[in-house]
């Protein structure tokens, strides 16, 4: 066991776990944030997607020992702050989820995409989102929600700019 | 989703015979008289609670069921708090399966709502000393129209509960519906996009330990020896115990690695060495030999399910006839949330369960049978389900948790790995459709579907006799259900080819198998008759609803449009779970394969609650149907599953999802299912489109869409 100081959703979190424990289980069972999901354990499904310093990462393949105390970890619970809630609202407007289990990961990947590419094309969405499986088959709506969020972000930013 | 306990009770309307629950006995006398299944509670603060007897696995039952109540009770959806039923018999059938949520609850819940509305109206009228005809229910209150005065449901609940429950309350005229049939956002979506929704995997209980399970690689192998020396070195591992995987038809050996956290349990599982005595399973848990047996069976007559005219003789004498074999693979459900359950078998013998299960009623029956306890000793808390597709109505994972908790006398959380999910089953059975048919004077007049394979009914319920055709064919390929009229002769027959591979229902059950054979073969016969596949179908489908669905599809998918060479459209129509769905897929040649350009689906599901959810479910069926056609099947070679995780059991990803369009036919018929009926026509529409574009007739699923040789 070893003690790790983590920066999780802007808060300092101290855990005492095995160095090889994936961040997924640290977040879920030691920091008690259950929004990040387990799906495959092999980085194949994307249900465990989080942000590590703003970049999407598969937490099931990220050992806690590889994360430094200054590395910023963001989960679905932390993404709603600031403009990222625009994405969650787009998900609501398009009524994306069915079972919803994969959607934390979908939203984390979409947030990273929109941050680096505010106006993604369908091809950009395919490239950024194909690591996230949805067995319910909500892909058509995920695509629409990303386009909607993209539009909404432009409106919001323009609004701020004009003030 | 809001949840409420049963505390302040006023009026309740529900099922007969629930007097044992202490918290509910106050309202029991009123309840005993109205024989409707689920029930509602209106408390003195106007809170309305609905006990929802359909777990939500993504199909939207947490919106659909309360909508039926809110409509009749004249309240908005937000006013209805939902608790999931716990499996007790008083709630009747509680399994999300067979696309049953709306079609089974349509009348009982509406009647319950209408009965409550009438009782509240009567109570208000009495209190005002006015005729009830001058009072109306609206927005959670009873109003006196002329004076504008009102009383809330909460103010009326206590007195209303003393009235006799009307047996035949007046239901609203559908033309007055405000919620049913209208677009409404699902109230459970915000929690599902913020990480707040609680699935089975998210349940924590004080004092809980975690277990990972080592299953038999050949599914039914017996443990010869266990070496847990390396496992016990893993920090956090508490215990290694023998456990068992109890399936409906048989029980297999297994080993549980119990730890303080699941990562430790998983590491311990990986370090465990088990020698298995595999008996003859290398031969009997094998898909190649299974399918070889189905093709052998196709050479012989099966057991007749139904026959009209003497098909065998007519076929023998027919001039223009063809014969084909259509194969569908075993498939895993592979919901993204793997199987998991938290169970606490307590010292006093009582049991509490938290699990993502499709049917608490079935689970209660299984748990009581397994642990030899009474239903009153068991408390089942149904969580949200992170996908299920049939898998989570099979309780092997739940009974494992029961076994381990009983051994340890502690709450235990069992989590299956993805590898457990994919390599252990149960699976949709692979099936063979042996098809024969003929045409006379340009019309399809003879049709035989010989369905061959392992019976779900037989294996799961241990109930199929040698000379009995699987009764579930009635929901799938019978002419009574699918309405094709073959003028000369038709036949549906069955041969049960058994396997030791565990099987179970998978989204749309046999329809997902037999739709492929039926609808591709109708297409083959249409070509034999030199007819347009749509027109050939219309000729033999006199049923008005089927006709309307196909005509709507033809219009929406622009069926008659001239396509360039190398492109083609295919159609298929199938009725399952009370709804008719048809699909048109357009493909075009691309390199060595084809590309799906567009999918148009039409569904007539009778009355529906939320058109957007009908569309969402149909979209899901398109994705799952195409996945089943062109992605991976499950195969076993010498007893071992050849797939283990999503890299070998690939499912469709967003970059492969084609443009899709859904249309609903408003027939006003009694409600049919929505969660499954969209799936069966997908694969055959694709196969037929590929034939139209390339001339290549595909008969075996899955196929590689990028390599249509």
TrEMBL record, chain A:
Q: Which organism is it from?
A: Dyadobacter endophyticus
Tell me which positions the record assigns to the signal sequence. Answer: none
Record-given protein name? Oxidoreductase
* InterPro entries the UniProt entry points to: 2Fe-2S-bd, 2Fe-2S-bd_dom_sf, 2Fe-2S_ferredoxin-like_sf, 2Fe-2S_ferredoxin-type, 2Fe2S_fd_BS, Beta-grasp_dom_sf, Diverse_Oxidoreductases
| Annotated 2Fe-2S ferredoxin-type domain residues | 2-79
In Pfam terms, one family for this protein is Fer2_2
Q: Which Gene3D superfamilies match?
A: 3.10.20.30, [2Fe-2S]-binding domain
Cite the entry's keywords alphabetically.
2Fe-2S, Iron, Iron-sulfur, Metal-binding, Oxidoreductase
Tell me the domain of life. Answer: Bacteria
From TrEMBL, chain B:
List residues of the Aldehyde oxidase/xanthine dehydrogenase a/b hammerhead domain: 194-280
Cite the InterPro entries for this sequence: Ald_Oxase/Xan_DH_a/b, AldOxase/xan_DH_MoCoBD1, AldOxase/xan_DH_MoCoBD2, AldOxase/xan_DH_Mopterin-bd_sf, N-heterocyclic_Hydroxylase, OxRdtase_Mopterin-bd_su_IorB
Task: Please give the name of this protein.
Answer: Aldehyde dehydrogenase
Record organism: Dyadobacter endophyticus
Give the classification, highest ranks: Bacteria, Pseudomonadati, Bacteroidota, Cytophagia, Cytophagales
């Amino acid at each position: 066991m070893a003690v790790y100081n983590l920066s999780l959703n802007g808060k300092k979190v101290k855990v005492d776990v095995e160095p090889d424990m994936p961040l997924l289980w640290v977040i879920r069972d030691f920091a008690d944030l259950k929004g990040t999901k387990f799906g495959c354990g092999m980085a194949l499904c994307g249900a465990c997607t989080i942000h590590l310093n703003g970049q999407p990462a598969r937490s099931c393949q990220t050992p806690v020992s590889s994360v430094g105390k200054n590395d910023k970890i963001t989960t679905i619970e932390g993404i709603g702050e600031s403009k990222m809630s625009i994405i969650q609202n787009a998900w609501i407007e398009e009524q994306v989820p069915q079972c919803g289990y994969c959607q934390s990961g979908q939203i984390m990947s979409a947030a990273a995409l929109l941050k680096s590419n505010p106006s993604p094309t369908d091809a950009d969405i395919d490239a950024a989102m194909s690591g996230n499986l949805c067995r319910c088959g909500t892909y058509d709506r995920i695509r629409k929600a990303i386009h909607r969020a993209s539009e909404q972000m432009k409106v919001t930013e323009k609004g701020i700019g004009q003030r | 989703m809001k949840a409420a306990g049963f505390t302040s009770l006023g009026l309740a309307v529900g099922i007969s015979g629930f007097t044992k629950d202490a918290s509910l006995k106050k309202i029991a006398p009123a309840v005993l008289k109205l024989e409707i299944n689920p029930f509602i509670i209106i408390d003195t603060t106007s809170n309305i609670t609905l006990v929802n007897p359909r777990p939500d696995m993504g199909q939207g039952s947490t919106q659909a069921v309360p909508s039926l109540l809110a409509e009749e009770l004249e309240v908005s959806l937000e006013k209805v708090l939902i608790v999931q039923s716990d499996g007790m018999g008083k709630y009747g059938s509680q399994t999300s399966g067979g696309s049953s949520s709306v079609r089974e609850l349509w009348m009982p819940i509406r009647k319950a709502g209408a009965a409550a509305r009438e009782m509240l109206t009567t109570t208000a009228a009495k209190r005002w000393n006015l005729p009830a005809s001058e009072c109306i229910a609206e927005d959670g209150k009873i109003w006196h129209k002329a004076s504008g005065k009102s009383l809330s449901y909460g103010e009326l609940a206590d007195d209303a509960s003393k009235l006799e429950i009307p047996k035949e309350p007046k239901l609203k005229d559908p033309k007055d519906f405000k919620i049913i049939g209208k677009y409404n956002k699902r109230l459970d979506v915000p929690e599902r996009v913020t990480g707040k929704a609680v699935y089975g995997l998210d349940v924590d209980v004080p004092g809980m330990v975690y277990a990972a399970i080592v299953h038999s690689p050949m599914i039914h192998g017996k443990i010869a020896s266990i070496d847990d020396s390396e496992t016990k070195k893993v920090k956090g591992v508490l215990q290694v115990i023998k456990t068992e995987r109890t399936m409906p038809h048989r029980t297999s050996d297994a080993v549980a690695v119990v730890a303080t956290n699941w990562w430790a349990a998983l590491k311990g599982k990986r370090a465990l060495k088990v020698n298995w005595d595999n008996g003859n399973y290398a031969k009997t848990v094998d898909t190649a030999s299974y399918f070889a047996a189905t093709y052998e069976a196709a050479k012989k007559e099966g057991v007749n399910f139904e026959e009209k005219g003497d098909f065998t003789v007519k076929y023998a004498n027919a001039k223009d006839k063809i014969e084909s074999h259509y194969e569908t693979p075993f498939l895993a459900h592979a919901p993204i949330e793997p199987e998991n359950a938290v169970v606490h078998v307590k010292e006093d013998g009582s049991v509490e369960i938290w699990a993502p299960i499709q049917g608490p009623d079935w689970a209660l029956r299984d748990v009581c049978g397994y642990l030899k306890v009474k239903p009153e000793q068991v408390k089942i808390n149904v969580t949200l389900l992170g996908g299920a597709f049939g898998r989570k109505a099979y309780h092997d994972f739940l009974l494992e948790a029961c076994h381990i908790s009983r051994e340890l006398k502690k709450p235990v959380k069992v989590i299956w790995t993805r590898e457990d999910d994919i390599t252990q089953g149960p699976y949709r059975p692979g099936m063979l459709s042996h098809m024969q048919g003929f045409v006379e004077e340009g019309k399809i007049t003879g049709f035989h579907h010989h369905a061959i394979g392992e019976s779900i009914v037989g294996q799961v319920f241990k109930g199929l006799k040698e000379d009995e055709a699987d009764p579930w064919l009635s929901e799938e390929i019978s002419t009574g259900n699918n309405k094709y009229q073959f003028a000369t002769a038709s036949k549906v027959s069955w041969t049960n080819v058994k396997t030791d591979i565990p099987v179970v229902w998978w989204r749309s059950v046999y329809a997902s198998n037999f739709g492929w054979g039926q609808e591709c073969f109708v297409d083959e016969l249409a070509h034999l008759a030199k007819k347009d596949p749509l027109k050939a179908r219309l000729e033999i489908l006199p049923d008005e609803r089927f006709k309307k669905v196909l005509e709507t599809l033809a219009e929406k998918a622009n069926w008659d449009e001239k396509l360039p060479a190398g492109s083609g459209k295919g159609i298929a129509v199938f009725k399952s779970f009370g709804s008719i769905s048809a699909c048109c897929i357009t493909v075009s040649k691309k390199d060595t394969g084809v590309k799906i350009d567009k999918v148009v689906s039409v569904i007539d599901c009778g009355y529906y609650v939320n058109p957007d959810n009908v569309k969402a479910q149909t979209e899901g069926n398109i994705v799952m149907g195409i996945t089943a056609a062109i992605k991976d099947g499950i195969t076993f070679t010498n007893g071992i599953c050849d797939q283990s995780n999503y890299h070998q059991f690939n499912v469709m990803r967003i970059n492969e999802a084609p443009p899709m369009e859904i249309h609903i036919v408003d027939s006003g018929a009694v409600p049919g299912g929505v969660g499954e009926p969209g799936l069966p026509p997908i694969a055959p529409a694709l196969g037929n489109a590929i034939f139209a574009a390339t001339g290549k007739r595909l008969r075996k699923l899955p196929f590689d869409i990028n390599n249509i040789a």
